[in-house]
Amino acid sequence: MTLLEEARPQAVRVRPRFDDVGFWLFVAGLLANCFAGHWSSLHVPVPIDRALLLAGLALEWGRARRDGRRAPLGTAAVLLLAFAVWTAISFLGSPVRASDGLFFLVDLAVLPAVLFLSAPLVLDTARRRSAFAATFAVFGCYLGLTAITQTLPLPALVFPAYILDPSVGIHADRARGPYAEAVNNGIMLVFSGALGGVTAALAERRAWRVVGIAATLLTAVGCALTLTRAIWFGGAAALLVGVLLTPALRRRAPVVLVGLVAVAALFPLVFPGFGEAATTRGGDESPIWDRLNVNAAAARMVVHDPLLGVGWNQAGERMSEFVRLGGDYPVTAASATLIPHNVFLGRFAELGILGGSLWIAATIAAYVVPVLRRGRPGFAPWRVALLACTVCWVVVANFGPVNYSQPAYLLALVGGITASGAAVRLPAHDWRPSPHRSLRGAHRG
């Protein structure tokens, strides 16, 4: 039995009510975070994304308190909060406390724990969860279309305009979206595509199902246009998870495979220069040398400070102390200034075996265990989405630092939603495989 072969839930309408001020402030803050670091390019004098997010959270926690509801403090939430505290102590004890270290602390440790804990309160109804998924499905369509218009190129259709400005951000020759960075854009394309799949599975209205399907297709095209190998591998792994765990898609796997091959064959025709650019990116060895150098240095940091590590956000500061000449590859000029390009090595290098093990335990409890537990009807698509997002994140985390705020927020929320759906166990007879085998039938009844 696959994750989607469960009891049929009640039909869900994607028809948000606009009187939920806290909820919509919260969602607006999440969406606006795609412009983090680039507000000045939009002529906005101060960042507003985190202010909206925190304002929405405050209103929603107040609503929950008035209703007599409390956030479920399960094992995953406790471990995530413990990791946030451990990381904060490591940061405060570091000799160099740069501002980016504080931002990384908040974005990668504190807020994910808070959002995971808040998901059952903010996204407490099927209506809200569906509105949340549908919003990010639309956002995925935007990211996919922006990748296409940037690549063709159709500059008049690219918003915001700074995406085309090579002086802003990096990866100006790739589909980099509002992040002005191809890897962050690629991860969010995958995550938004996964929520597009949730929308296609749960929406009652045909229009929203079409939006969900369009999001999965456009984000897949956008992933290819990022010209980033980690995103290619991570996106392919997420797509494989979605196909294998969705009965309707699994039965049509050969058709899906043929369609993907056909689309790939058309890419050089639709996007002139794509084939040459993809070949160049695939054969570029210098990024591989950079990764080998900094990751080997991170491993030496673990040996040097095995229990507590060199300190949060200190790996980049001390990289030059640990870089050595490799036997089969050169030391590049960038190696001494980069941070570890493997999240797992980076965590253990900076937080030691104790902090790294705590982070691994929290990650498994928050993003793996909820997938393995069967929960209430209507949460099966969320489990598939969580697994797809987690698999993509793990793959990409082996190739780069992945210190991006919006993917961290979104993964924490999807994990919190899925965990809340698995928190209540129903009698065994409620989990008989549904006789309705199609994707629509399995969720709409």
From TrEMBL:
Its main location: membrane. This is O-antigen ligase-related domain-containing protein. It comes from the Bacteria. PANTHER family: TEICHURONIC ACID BIOSYNTHESIS PROTEIN TUAE (PTHR37422). It is a multi-pass membrane protein. Keywords: Membrane, Transmembrane, Transmembrane helix. Residues 215-360 form the O-antigen ligase-related domain. The chain crosses the membrane at residues 21-38, 73-96, 102-123, 135-163, 183-203, 210-227, 256-274, 351-372, 384-402, 408-428. It comes from Amnibacterium soli. It is found in: Membrane. InterPro entries: O-antigen_ligase-rel_domated, WaaL-like. The keyword Signal does not apply.
